[in-house]
Design brief:
Amidase signature (AS) enzymes, alpha/beta, eleven-stranded mixed β-sheet
Length: 439
């Protein structure tokens, strides 16, 4: 099946004339038709539009026009990123008819790279606080996690080789863990959020999912760049992430393992799996008792997230008393009690985290930690706790979930690596070393 090709391999085959973009897109669409009734990964899909994009890519290739690194390769885009030729409903029926007039920054970058925007993947409502309709590809009685549910499921089910997600707490790393794919949230500010639903200007970050380390690195490279419309981005050189993912580490890396305040919540299989991996890294990993402030980070993250969500979406029709989801209503109510002083004090934790980790990574290549508390919970038990990502997201650190473990019900679970700000290439190189070492 062409739909099983990696993005790098598919792009190469299209460049060399072994396959066409139409061949690949057609196979992906057939795979979706066969499986998505059960999985529910897609919020919007227009077969004619997808094939028209593929045909345009093939004509350009036949004419010898310049081509980008993803020429003719289909990508899924989370339904919080504006697309001018597709609706962007933010996962809510209230905005079902919302049709943006311009593309978001990530969609602009995908077009520039020659990618085919296959469709919009399911997000939880307003990308916050609830489980969406998407089911786990390994067992449809279990969740995919939130809020980038459709992106993770679409990659895991071979609908597309790549998909775009977002992370404000754990919305890339956790679904990647539950669905057995690679999930990567680059350093805060590498990828522009222009044209993306803003729930938290401090915490919202763009992430990617794929089926190989090189694929997610390539996609992150494609999407990165300075954008004056997003104040979190910066006008200086970015790490070469694909190079990092493919090169050998010059010396064996040193890992840090934090004994974190939430680790008593890990499932038995996650705890045992992590201990096995740490045993295989003997001499390369240092166990560290987490500072007391790490527990405070989790509390301050919630304050920032809820305060800014209310600030950005408190007047949105989807959060009105008439339409608000019952899992979101208490968070909105709580946000209304947060004072401006409390919020500004919480923001100081972001600055403190920046300073702490800038010093910390002088001695370590990566932090190794679980991607989730365990395998995917049953649907009726919710979308899973994002707590394994909270600290790293608040600090804006690059985070990566590797599909290395299996849970008690034979569902996948991820191992997370966390790196230093703007050293995403080093993190990916370390991940490459780890995969080879464990193999």
């Amino acid at each position: 099946m062409l739909s099983k090709l990696s993005a790098l391999n598919a792009a190469q085959k299209i460049r060399e004339g072994e396959i066409t973009s139409r061949d690949l897109v057609t196979d992906c669409l057939e795979r979706i038709a066969q499986t998505d009734d059960k999985i529910g990964a897609w919020a919007f899909l227009d077969t004619d539009l997808a094939l028209a994009q593929a045909d345009a890519a093939d004509i350009a290739h036949q004419k010898g026009a310049p081509s980008g690194p993803l020429h003719g390769v289909p990508v899924g885009v989370k339904d919080i990123y504006d697309t001018k030729d597709m609706p962007t409903a933010w996962g809510t029926k209230v905005h079902a008819a919302r049709q943006p007039q311009a593309d978001s920054a990530v969609v602009d970058k995908l077009h520039e790279a020659g990618a085919i925007i296959l469709g919009k993947t399911v997000t939880t409502e307003l990308a916050f606080a609830m489980r969406g309709p998407t089911r786990n590809p390994y067992n449809d009685k279990h969740t995919t996690g939130g809020s980038s549910a459709g992106s993770a499921a679409s990659v895991a089910t071979d609908h597309v080789p790549l998909a775009i997600g977002s992370q404000t707490n754990g919305s890339v790393i956790r679904p990647a863990s539950f669905c057995g794919v690679y999930g990567f949230k680059p350093t805060r500010g590498i990828i522009s959020r222009r044209g993306c639903l803003q729930t938290s200007q401090t915490l919202d970050q763009v992430g990617v999912m794929g089926r190989s380390l090189s694929d997610i690195a390539l996609l992150a490279d494609v999407l990165g760049g300075y954008d004056p419309a997003d104040p979190a981005t910066y006008a200086r050189a970015k790490p070469d992430m694909l190079k990092g993912a493919q090169e050998e580490a010059p010396v064996e890396p040193i890992f840090a393992w934090f004994d974190l305040p939430y680790q008593d919540q890990l499932s038995t299989t996650m705890r045992e799996g992590m201990e096995e991996i740490l045993a295989l890294l003997v001499g390369r990993v240092e166990r560290i008792v987490a500072p007391n402030s790490f527990a405070d980070v989790i509390k301050e993250h919630q304050i920032i997230h809820e305060y800014e969500f209310l600030e950005n979406l408190g007047d949105d029709p989807a959060t009105s008393q008439e339409h608000i989801h019952d899992t979101l209503a208490p968070k909105k109510k709580n946000a209304q009690t947060i004072s401006q002083e409390t919020y500004h004090n919480a923001l100081k934790m972001v600055e403190a985290a920046d300073l702490y980790f800038a010093e910390f990574f002088n001695d370590y290549d990566a932090i190794i930690t679980p991607s989730s508390l365990g395998e995917a919970p049953l649907l009726e038990d919710g979308s899973g706790d994002p707590i394994c990502s909270t600290i790293w997201t608040l600090a804006g650190l690059p985070c990566l979930s590797l599909p290395l473990l299996t849970g008690e019900n034979s569902l996948p679970a991820g191992v997370q690596l966390v790196g230093s700000i703007e050293q995403d290439d080093r993190l990916l190189r370390t991940a490459n070393w780890l995969e080879k070492h464990l193999a």
